[in-house]
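step=encode ok
step=design start
structure_in=
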Protein backbone atom coordinates (compact mmCIF):
# COMPACT_ATOMS: atom_id res chain seq x y z
CA UNK A 1 0.00 0.00 0.00
CA UNK A 2 1.09 3.53 -0.68
CA UNK A 3 1.96 5.68 2.31
CA UNK A 4 0.81 8.74 0.37
CA UNK A 5 -2.74 7.49 -0.20
CA UNK A 6 -5.47 10.05 -0.81
CA UNK A 7 -8.43 10.42 1.56
CA UNK A 8 -11.42 8.17 0.95
CA UNK A 9 -13.32 8.98 -2.22
CA UNK A 10 -16.82 10.00 -1.15
CA UNK A 11 -19.72 11.52 -3.06
CA UNK A 12 -18.76 14.97 -1.81
CA UNK A 13 -15.16 14.60 -2.91
CA UNK A 14 -16.30 13.37 -6.33
CA UNK A 15 -17.82 16.80 -6.87
CA UNK A 16 -15.36 19.01 -5.00
CA UNK A 17 -11.91 17.58 -5.74
CA UNK A 18 -10.28 19.05 -8.85
CA UNK A 19 -6.70 19.26 -10.09
CA UNK A 20 -5.69 21.32 -13.14
CA UNK A 21 -3.94 19.54 -15.99
CA UNK A 22 -1.92 21.98 -18.09
CA UNK A 23 -2.09 20.01 -21.36
CA UNK A 24 -5.81 19.30 -21.10
CA UNK A 25 -6.58 22.86 -20.05
CA UNK A 26 -4.64 24.21 -23.03
CA UNK A 27 -6.56 21.95 -25.42
CA UNK A 28 -9.92 22.98 -23.93
CA UNK A 29 -9.07 26.69 -24.18
CA UNK A 30 -7.88 26.36 -27.79
CA UNK A 31 -11.01 24.47 -28.86
CA UNK A 32 -13.28 26.94 -27.03
CA UNK A 33 -11.56 29.98 -28.57
CA UNK A 34 -11.68 28.57 -32.09
CA UNK A 35 -15.33 27.59 -31.79
CA UNK A 36 -16.29 30.91 -30.21
CA UNK A 37 -14.43 32.79 -32.95
CA UNK A 38 -16.39 30.92 -35.60
CA UNK A 39 -19.74 31.66 -33.98
CA UNK A 40 -18.90 35.37 -33.54
CA UNK A 41 -17.70 35.64 -37.12
CA UNK A 42 -21.00 34.27 -38.41
CA UNK A 43 -23.02 36.60 -36.20
CA UNK A 44 -21.08 39.63 -37.40
CA UNK A 45 -22.07 38.67 -40.93
CA UNK A 46 -25.70 38.45 -39.85
CA UNK A 47 -25.77 34.65 -39.94
CA UNK A 48 -27.01 32.57 -37.05
CA UNK A 49 -25.63 29.45 -35.43
CA UNK A 50 -27.90 27.20 -33.32
CA UNK A 51 -27.57 27.74 -29.58
CA UNK A 52 -28.19 24.02 -29.07
CA UNK A 53 -25.01 23.23 -31.00
CA UNK A 54 -23.01 25.71 -28.91
CA UNK A 55 -24.37 24.13 -25.73
CA UNK A 56 -23.56 20.60 -26.92
CA UNK A 57 -20.01 21.57 -27.84
CA UNK A 58 -19.35 23.49 -24.62
CA UNK A 59 -21.21 21.42 -22.02
CA UNK A 60 -21.14 17.85 -23.31
CA UNK A 61 -17.95 18.09 -25.37
CA UNK A 62 -15.56 20.39 -23.49
CA UNK A 63 -17.30 19.65 -20.19
CA UNK A 64 -16.69 15.90 -20.52
CA UNK A 65 -13.09 16.60 -21.48
CA UNK A 66 -12.61 18.72 -18.36
CA UNK A 67 -14.27 16.18 -16.06
CA UNK A 68 -12.21 13.33 -17.47
CA UNK A 69 -8.86 15.09 -17.12
CA UNK A 70 -9.18 17.38 -14.09
CA UNK A 71 -11.95 16.17 -11.78
CA UNK A 72 -11.74 13.59 -9.01
CA UNK A 73 -11.56 10.94 -11.72
CA UNK A 74 -8.13 12.28 -12.70
CA UNK A 75 -7.05 12.80 -9.09
CA UNK A 76 -7.88 9.23 -8.06
CA UNK A 77 -7.02 7.36 -11.26
CA UNK A 78 -3.61 6.35 -9.89
CA UNK A 79 -5.20 5.03 -6.69
CA UNK A 80 -8.23 3.21 -8.11
CA UNK A 81 -8.89 1.51 -11.41
CA UNK A 82 -12.56 2.41 -11.85
CA UNK A 83 -12.00 6.21 -12.05
CA UNK A 84 -9.41 5.60 -14.77
CA UNK A 85 -11.88 3.37 -16.64
CA UNK A 86 -14.60 6.05 -16.47
CA UNK A 87 -12.05 8.64 -17.60
CA UNK A 88 -11.20 6.67 -20.70
CA UNK A 89 -14.83 6.10 -21.68
CA UNK A 90 -15.57 9.81 -21.31
CA UNK A 91 -12.64 10.62 -23.58
CA UNK A 92 -13.33 8.17 -26.40
CA UNK A 93 -17.15 8.16 -26.35
CA UNK A 94 -18.82 11.05 -24.53
CA UNK A 95 -16.51 13.98 -25.36
CA UNK A 96 -16.34 13.14 -29.12
CA UNK A 97 -20.13 12.92 -29.24
CA UNK A 98 -20.51 16.36 -27.61
CA UNK A 99 -17.91 17.93 -29.89
CA UNK A 100 -19.55 16.40 -32.98
CA UNK A 101 -23.02 17.61 -31.98
CA UNK A 102 -21.53 21.10 -31.99
CA UNK A 103 -20.72 20.56 -35.71
CA UNK A 104 -17.31 22.32 -35.56
CA UNK A 105 -16.26 21.32 -39.08
CA UNK A 106 -19.31 22.87 -40.73
CA UNK A 107 -18.86 25.94 -38.55
CA UNK A 108 -15.27 26.22 -39.74
CA UNK A 109 -16.26 25.86 -43.39
CA UNK A 110 -18.77 28.69 -43.02
CA UNK A 111 -16.68 31.00 -40.84
CA UNK A 112 -13.29 30.74 -42.55
CA UNK A 113 -12.39 32.86 -45.58
CA UNK A 114 -12.80 31.11 -48.92
CA UNK A 115 -9.15 30.07 -49.11
CA UNK A 116 -9.14 28.75 -45.54
CA UNK A 117 -12.40 26.87 -46.05
CA UNK A 118 -10.95 25.30 -49.18
CA UNK A 119 -7.86 24.14 -47.31
CA UNK A 120 -9.97 22.69 -44.49
CA UNK A 121 -12.18 20.88 -46.96
CA UNK A 122 -9.15 19.58 -48.83
CA UNK A 123 -7.52 18.34 -45.64
CA UNK A 124 -10.70 16.55 -44.55
CA UNK A 125 -11.06 14.96 -47.99
CA UNK A 126 -7.51 13.58 -48.15
CA UNK A 127 -6.97 9.86 -48.68
CA UNK A 128 -5.57 9.24 -45.21
CA UNK A 129 -8.43 11.05 -43.46
CA UNK A 130 -11.02 9.30 -45.61
CA UNK A 131 -9.45 5.94 -44.78
CA UNK A 132 -9.26 6.62 -41.04
CA UNK A 133 -12.85 7.93 -40.96
CA UNK A 134 -14.27 5.02 -42.95
CA UNK A 135 -16.92 3.76 -40.48
CA UNK A 136 -15.68 0.19 -40.15
CA UNK A 137 -12.05 1.32 -39.86
CA UNK A 138 -12.74 4.03 -37.27
CA UNK A 139 -14.92 1.73 -35.18
CA UNK A 140 -12.18 -0.90 -35.22
CA UNK A 141 -9.65 1.76 -34.16
CA UNK A 142 -11.73 2.64 -31.08
CA UNK A 143 -11.96 -1.02 -30.08
CA UNK A 144 -8.26 -1.62 -30.75
CA UNK A 145 -7.30 1.47 -28.75
CA UNK A 146 -9.21 0.33 -25.67
CA UNK A 147 -7.87 -3.23 -25.84
CA UNK A 148 -4.33 -1.97 -26.46
CA UNK A 149 -4.49 0.33 -23.45
CA UNK A 150 -5.72 -2.30 -21.01
CA UNK A 151 -3.99 -5.45 -22.26
CA UNK A 152 -0.51 -4.15 -23.03
CA UNK A 153 1.96 -2.27 -20.77
CA UNK A 154 0.58 1.01 -22.25
CA UNK A 155 -1.80 1.77 -19.36
CA UNK A 156 0.52 0.91 -16.49
CA UNK A 157 3.36 2.87 -18.12
CA UNK A 158 1.05 5.87 -18.55
CA UNK A 159 0.26 5.75 -14.83
CA UNK A 160 3.99 6.13 -14.12
CA UNK A 161 4.74 8.95 -16.57
CA UNK A 162 2.57 12.07 -16.78
CA UNK A 163 3.53 12.96 -20.36
CA UNK A 164 2.48 9.54 -21.63
CA UNK A 165 -0.73 9.83 -19.60
CA UNK A 166 -1.59 13.05 -21.43
CA UNK A 167 -0.73 11.38 -24.73
CA UNK A 168 -3.12 8.57 -23.86
CA UNK A 169 -5.87 11.14 -23.24
CA UNK A 170 -5.30 12.62 -26.70
CA UNK A 171 -5.12 9.16 -28.28
CA UNK A 172 -8.53 8.22 -26.89
CA UNK A 173 -10.12 11.53 -27.87
CA UNK A 174 -8.86 11.31 -31.45
CA UNK A 175 -9.85 7.66 -31.85
CA UNK A 176 -13.41 8.39 -30.75
CA UNK A 177 -13.64 11.52 -32.90
CA UNK A 178 -12.61 9.62 -36.05
CA UNK A 179 -15.86 7.65 -35.85
CA UNK A 180 -18.30 10.19 -34.47
CA UNK A 181 -17.44 13.34 -36.43
CA UNK A 182 -17.91 11.95 -39.97
CA UNK A 183 -21.10 10.07 -39.09
CA UNK A 184 -22.74 13.15 -37.56
CA UNK A 185 -21.21 16.09 -39.41
CA UNK A 186 -19.24 15.14 -42.55
CA UNK A 187 -21.63 13.23 -44.79
CA UNK A 188 -19.53 14.00 -47.87
CA UNK A 189 -16.58 12.18 -46.25
CA UNK A 190 -18.59 8.94 -46.11
CA UNK A 191 -19.07 6.43 -48.96
CA UNK A 192 -22.21 6.84 -51.09
CA UNK A 193 -23.70 3.66 -49.64
CA UNK A 194 -23.49 5.08 -46.11
CA UNK A 195 -27.06 6.42 -46.09
CA UNK A 196 -28.95 7.38 -42.94
CA UNK A 197 -30.37 3.85 -42.44
CA UNK A 198 -26.88 2.40 -42.84
CA UNK A 199 -25.46 4.96 -40.42
CA UNK A 200 -28.13 4.10 -37.87
CA UNK A 201 -27.19 0.43 -38.19
CA UNK A 202 -23.49 1.29 -37.84
CA UNK A 203 -24.16 3.32 -34.68
CA UNK A 204 -26.14 0.43 -33.22
CA UNK A 205 -23.32 -1.97 -34.09
CA UNK A 206 -20.75 0.46 -32.66
CA UNK A 207 -22.70 0.56 -29.40
CA UNK A 208 -22.33 -3.21 -29.14
CA UNK A 209 -18.63 -3.05 -30.02
CA UNK A 210 -18.00 -0.30 -27.47
CA UNK A 211 -19.31 -2.59 -24.75
CA UNK A 212 -16.73 -5.28 -25.55
CA UNK A 213 -13.74 -3.70 -23.71
CA UNK A 214 -15.83 -3.19 -20.59
CA UNK A 215 -17.06 -6.79 -20.64
CA UNK A 216 -13.53 -8.10 -21.15
CA UNK A 217 -12.16 -5.90 -18.34
CA UNK A 218 -14.98 -6.90 -15.99
CA UNK A 219 -14.55 -10.64 -16.58
CA UNK A 220 -10.76 -10.74 -16.99
CA UNK A 221 -9.20 -12.85 -14.26
CA UNK A 222 -5.76 -11.21 -14.51
CA UNK A 223 -5.37 -7.81 -12.91
CA UNK A 224 -4.88 -4.88 -15.28
CA UNK A 225 -1.88 -2.82 -14.18
CA UNK A 226 -1.92 -5.12 -11.20
CA UNK A 227 1.62 -4.38 -10.05
CA UNK A 228 0.79 -0.67 -9.87
CA UNK A 229 -2.59 -0.87 -8.15
CA UNK A 230 -1.54 -3.54 -5.66
CA UNK A 231 1.14 -1.10 -4.50
CA UNK A 232 -0.90 2.12 -4.63
CA UNK A 233 -4.44 1.09 -3.63
CA UNK A 234 -5.33 2.76 -0.29
CA UNK A 235 -6.63 0.84 2.71
CA UNK A 236 -10.19 2.20 2.35
CA UNK A 237 -10.51 1.02 -1.27
CA UNK A 238 -12.25 -2.18 -2.36
CA UNK A 239 -10.29 -5.28 -3.27
CA UNK A 240 -8.23 -4.72 -6.43
CA UNK A 241 -10.12 -7.42 -8.32
CA UNK A 242 -13.44 -5.91 -7.23
CA UNK A 243 -12.19 -2.47 -8.24
CA UNK A 244 -11.47 -3.79 -11.73
CA UNK A 245 -14.94 -5.32 -11.96
CA UNK A 246 -16.49 -1.98 -10.98
CA UNK A 247 -14.46 -0.26 -13.68
CA UNK A 248 -15.52 -2.74 -16.35
CA UNK A 249 -19.16 -2.43 -15.32
CA UNK A 250 -18.95 1.36 -15.51
CA UNK A 251 -17.43 1.12 -19.00
CA UNK A 252 -20.28 -1.09 -20.26
CA UNK A 253 -22.96 1.10 -18.68
CA UNK A 254 -21.62 4.38 -20.07
CA UNK A 255 -21.03 2.87 -23.52
CA UNK A 256 -24.63 1.70 -23.77
CA UNK A 257 -26.02 4.98 -22.41
CA UNK A 258 -24.02 6.99 -24.94
CA UNK A 259 -25.25 4.88 -27.85
CA UNK A 260 -28.84 6.01 -27.25
CA UNK A 261 -28.39 9.78 -27.85
CA UNK A 262 -25.97 8.97 -30.68
CA UNK A 263 -28.61 6.84 -32.40
CA UNK A 264 -31.27 9.47 -31.68
CA UNK A 265 -29.12 12.15 -33.36
CA UNK A 266 -28.83 9.97 -36.48
CA UNK A 267 -32.59 9.39 -36.55
CA UNK A 268 -33.24 13.14 -36.23
CA UNK A 269 -30.87 13.80 -39.16
CA UNK A 270 -32.61 11.08 -41.14
CA UNK A 271 -36.01 12.67 -40.50
CA UNK A 272 -34.77 16.13 -41.49
CA UNK A 273 -33.14 14.84 -44.68
CA UNK A 274 -36.31 12.98 -45.63
CA UNK A 275 -38.43 16.07 -44.98
CA UNK A 276 -36.08 18.25 -47.07
CA UNK A 277 -36.21 15.72 -49.90
CA UNK A 278 -40.02 15.77 -49.85
CA UNK A 279 -40.02 19.57 -50.04
CA UNK A 280 -37.74 19.49 -53.10
CA UNK A 281 -39.94 16.86 -54.74
CA UNK A 282 -43.11 18.84 -54.03
CA UNK A 283 -41.59 21.96 -55.56
CA UNK A 284 -40.57 20.05 -58.67
CA UNK A 285 -44.07 18.61 -59.07
CA UNK A 286 -45.59 22.07 -58.56
CA UNK A 287 -43.31 23.43 -61.27
CA UNK A 288 -44.31 20.65 -63.68
CA UNK A 289 -48.03 21.28 -63.09
CA UNK A 290 -47.75 25.09 -63.18
CA UNK A 291 -49.45 26.95 -66.06
CA UNK A 292 -47.34 26.96 -69.17
CA UNK A 293 -46.09 30.33 -70.42
CA UNK A 294 -48.67 31.95 -72.74
CA UNK A 295 -47.70 32.05 -76.43
CA UNK A 296 -47.71 35.31 -78.41
CA UNK A 297 -48.71 37.19 -75.27
CA UNK A 298 -52.29 35.83 -75.28
CA UNK A 299 -53.40 34.70 -71.78
CA UNK A 300 -56.15 32.55 -73.28
CA UNK A 301 -53.50 30.30 -74.79
CA UNK A 302 -52.13 29.34 -71.31
CA UNK A 303 -52.83 25.78 -70.25
CA UNK A 304 -51.63 23.38 -67.63
CA UNK A 305 -48.86 21.01 -68.49
CA UNK A 306 -50.61 17.81 -69.54
CA UNK A 307 -50.25 14.82 -67.17
CA UNK A 308 -47.97 12.06 -68.42
CA UNK A 309 -50.76 9.58 -68.99
CA UNK A 310 -52.41 11.81 -71.62
CA UNK A 311 -49.39 11.47 -73.87
CA UNK A 312 -48.28 7.97 -72.93
CA UNK A 313 -48.95 5.47 -75.69
CA UNK A 314 -48.61 2.38 -73.50
CA UNK A 315 -51.30 0.20 -71.95
CA UNK A 316 -51.01 1.97 -68.58
CA UNK A 317 -51.53 5.38 -70.18
CA UNK A 318 -54.57 4.14 -72.15
CA UNK A 319 -56.10 2.67 -69.00
CA UNK A 320 -55.51 5.94 -67.12
CA UNK A 321 -57.16 7.93 -69.93
CA UNK A 322 -60.20 5.64 -69.97
CA UNK A 323 -60.60 6.03 -66.22
CA UNK A 324 -60.10 9.81 -66.18
CA UNK A 325 -63.17 12.02 -65.52
CA UNK A 326 -64.90 13.13 -68.70
CA UNK A 327 -63.46 10.31 -70.79
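sequence_out=
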Amino acid sequence: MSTMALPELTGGRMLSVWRPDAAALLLIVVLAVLYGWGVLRLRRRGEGWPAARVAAFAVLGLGSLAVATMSALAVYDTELFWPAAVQNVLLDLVAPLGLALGDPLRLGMRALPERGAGRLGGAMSGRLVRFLTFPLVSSALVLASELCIYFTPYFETALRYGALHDLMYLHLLLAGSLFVLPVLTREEALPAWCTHPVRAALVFLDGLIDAVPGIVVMTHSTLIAGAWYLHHTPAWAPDVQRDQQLGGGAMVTIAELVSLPFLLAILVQWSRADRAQRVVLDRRLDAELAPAAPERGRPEDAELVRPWWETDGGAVGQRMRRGAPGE
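step=design ok
step=annotate ok -> The radius of gyration is 27 Å.
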